[in-house]
Design brief:
The structure holds 2 protein chains of 2 kinds. By secondary structure, chain A is of the alpha+beta class. Chain A has 4 helices and 13 strands. In chain A, strand 5 and strand 6 form a beta hairpin. Classes of the chains: A alpha+beta, B alpha+beta.
Amino acid sequence: MRDARKRRIGRKLWLWAVCAVSVALALPSAADSIDPSDSLDRLEPAPPDVDPRDVAIRAENSLRSDRTYMAAKMTIRSPRLSEPRVVEFRSWDDRPEKRSFIRIDAPAKDRGAAFLKLHPNLWSYVPRVERTLRIPPSMMLQPWMGSDFTNDDLVNESSSIDDYDHRMLGVDPGDGVAVDERAYVIEFIPHEDAPVVWGKIVAWIGVEHGTQLLQKFYDEDGEKMRTIGFAEIREVNGRWVPHHWEVTPHNKEGHSTTIEISEFRFDETFDEKIFTTRNLKQRN
Amino acid sequence: MLEFRLAWRNVWRNPRRTSLTVAATVFAVVLVVMSVGMAAGVHEKMIEDAVRYGSGHLSVTGEGYLENRTLEQFVHFDDEIEQQLRDTDGVRGYAPRVQSFALLARGNSTSGVAVFGVDPSLENSVSRFSERVRTGSFITPGGRRQIVLGQRLAAKLSAEVGDSLLLYSVAYSLETAYELFDVAGVMRLPDPNLDANLAVISLADAQDFFVYGDRVSEIAILTDEADSAADVARTLKATLRMEGPFEINTWDQIMPELVQFILLDDAGMYITVFIVVVVVGFGILNTVLMAVLERRKEFGVVLALGLRPAAVFRTVYFESVMLAGVGLVIGLAVGLPMLLYFQAHPIELTGGMTEVMELFGSEPVMTFKLKPLNPIGSTITIFALAIVAAFYPAVKASRGRPVDVLRSL
């Protein structure tokens, strides 16, 4: 008699335990799907005298001068790859002329490949068959070199200043939920004719150094598509520049791409010959 | 038998009126036979073309391929799978394909293209691409780095047979994929969208190009009958031993918009047919009713002489059915040979309808098809019509009380 009751109680306890464990297991996964940094409740109101457009211009200028050279290493991670794919490249960006040039140095298979943007066209040179290909403007938002960055990210066809309206959302206290330092949170809304696919971009721009810290890209339905995080912000020629960019697409499980910049040179003088289709074919 | 003879005589009592009614019935029968035959023919052709230029009656793909259509969704295709397909009843042909997006360039012209990697020795058992080659040839078994373009695509790139084109994309391994291909042929495809975007290369080249191993995007399967697709799909789903998750979809699942179009088109046709049949029905009703009304005296007399009302009812009914029957026989005698003629000689289309056909990847040709259900259905419809139309006149004729009828005259 008593044994039977004990068993019943035991079974009840067991059930409770199962329930508790499953709830405990379910909770963190539910938290995963809701990114706490998406919430704007934590934001403090921004000082009224700060113009979001000025903040955006400052952020743009911290990363790009009129003529910028950089050398970088891109690492692509994907469930398809047993080990990450590493691409090394150098880039020359001439902002006033809306042109840029990228040379691939590694892997060996792609060594010598190059990209040239002469607004609005993008040219790609493929070394093994020695051909130049015009990539139509409609391809600007296609992945660049198989990464999670787009062609546009690399050659800056769209402008974060001229192609967007800027709206101040507030100041992030820098409590580590989204970013580790105080940052203006600004919403970038593309103009209707802008060459972008995003519905909006929400960007965290550091109050202190005025650099981009975090960008979240949303599609036209308001769905978060990708996040770019900026880190290793170091001073180069009096500018504070992030040296580590990482993009995570939210619709592709397990994919991510990082770009680590080993060298920045700002306000360079560039040889006109860099931005020519002839230069694409040079082995330099 | 007497009633029968009476009815037959009465049908020809007013030959001109009867001829007109018969003519209307003939017209209706021909219209019904032709409309139904045309719908059957056009729809069958649309399905056939959509299946032949699309994914076959069945398509075996990686899970989620239909929604995403990227290299991420694939199935493995090897000798073992091939043997299993060959051993499955009802499989008429199968074609493994790699499908992806790429840029194709000649000089400064670049176009986005849908790349099909096909096995030339298997592809013909499913698709009709090779029959569509207008200049040059289709890719040949064992040939390397050959590419066949849709005519509009070739025009966009001003590419001709023998030209060397650069194909550029991202491989499954996330490397940049690029290779030169020689234009082997140019094909004219009925679907303008396909014609402007399709580039066909060999399966082996595609698997090299996209670093895809023995993976394929889909295995298109042609079954013996379009109707047996669902059964074969079920069998394959149960028996196919495939590495990794896969799904099998039938043509109507792959192209629900085609199924909807056919349903809508059929509905439209049936409404037209229905209206014509109703109009003819009133014609028959009118004729029979007039024939009854002008013979009120006659019916009064025969009823007074003791003919049972049921016999009068039957006489009128026979009359109506004979009237319809004559129309039906002549109608079928005209309509069926006409249908058979057009079945053998399809009509080439011009104008608005071509766009609809092209939208679904079909040639702008109006085809006809005689199915047994067509004349059977027409016969039943016309007789049903005669039976409904004759009801009121027959009741009217048999119900009259002889005294009243005779007094009223």
